[in-house]
Write a structure and sequence with these properties.
Elements lengths: L9 E7 L6 H6 L6 E6 L6 H7 L3 E4 L5 H11 L4 E6 L2 E3 L1 H12 L7 E8 L16 E6 L3 E2 L11 E2 L3 E10 L5 H21 L6 H18 L6 H26 L10
Helix pairs in contact: 5-7, 6-7
């Protein structure tokens, strides 16, 4: 997994929790990196054993937020150029070639690089709508950036300096089942509602009515999500429902209503 001494080495970092069924393919796609660091949140399956067998350096840290966990992983890397992935992502051959070309040029033109993320959705890759290209900044010089801010959900890396785009897709397998997606989006909706409420943001009747509808029509119609067939339709509906759930939860919080069943 080593690179020529003249080229800036890359540390790949991944956060995990019970990813035994997916971590192997993720690690295999990172074989071009000088090292792989896995920060696990206490998996009860074989995630850590699989990662160690693949040559990764595995650390265990209690989970306290996505942003915090990812920044901790970045801080543990040996090298300053880091490539951040989730266990459900893989570097495509085209993206790997683009990353290596940028590395061979010494990463001279940027402090970070972003690239498109291509998501698989129940047997089909979504190439339209709100799902694609979903460009993410995942390769950067940690001396000039990282996972910054105080938002632990829908976290994003940022850098001080130029950001360039690389060709190729980051392949994403986000959901094991529809029920897992629904559970995940409900959890994320609550986290975002609580974050926005803490920052003083408030919902309105207009947002409650129109925001979910706009999310659906923007992705399904204006961004041509309908060209992805029934997969695009279901995806657009579920993502619109996420907006609806988040707005309802924010509304309840500002009205002083509990989101959980009160204890008796």
């Amino acid at each position: 997994m080593s690179s020529p001494a003249s080229d800036p080495p890359i540390s790949a970092v991944i956060i995990t929790f019970n990813e035994a069924d997916r971590i192997g393919d993720c690690l295999a796609s990172l074989a071009f990196c000088a090292e792989i660091v896995v920060v696990d949140s206490g998996s009860t399956d074989d995630t850590r054993a699989i990662a160690e067998a693949a040559g990764a350096r595995v650390l265990v840290r209690p989970f306290d937020g996505f942003r915090s966990q990812k920044q901790f992983a970045v801080d543990q890397a040996t090298h300053d150029w880091v490539l951040c992935l989730d266990a459900d992502e893989r570097v495509s051959p085209e993206l790997r070639a683009s990353i290596l070309a940028a590395r061979d040029a010494g990463f001279a033109d940027a402090a970070g690089y972003r690239f498109a993320r291509l998501s698989e959705y129940f047997g089909k890759f979504l190439r339209r709508g709100n799902a694609y290209p979903d460009r993410v900044l995942r390769l950067f010089d940690r001396r000039r950036g990282g996972w910054r801010g105080d938002r632990e959900i829908h976290e994003a890396a940022s850098v001080d300096g130029a950001v360039r785009a690389l060709a190729g897709d980051l392949i994403h397998y986000p959901y094991r089942s529809l029920m897992q997606q629904l559970s995940k989006t409900e959890r994320y909706a609550r986290m975002m509602a609580e974050y926005e409420f803490s920052r003083g943001k408030r919902a309105s009747l207009g947002k409650l009515v129109f925001s979910p509808a706009w999310r659906f029509w923007r992705g399904y119609v204006f961004r041509l999500g309908f060209l992805d067939g029934w997969h695009g339709l279901v995806y657009a509906y579920v993502r619109a429902n996420y907006v609806r759930q988040k707005t309802i939860m924010l509304w309840l919080l500002q009205e002083g209503r509990p989101l959980d069943t009160p204890e008796r």
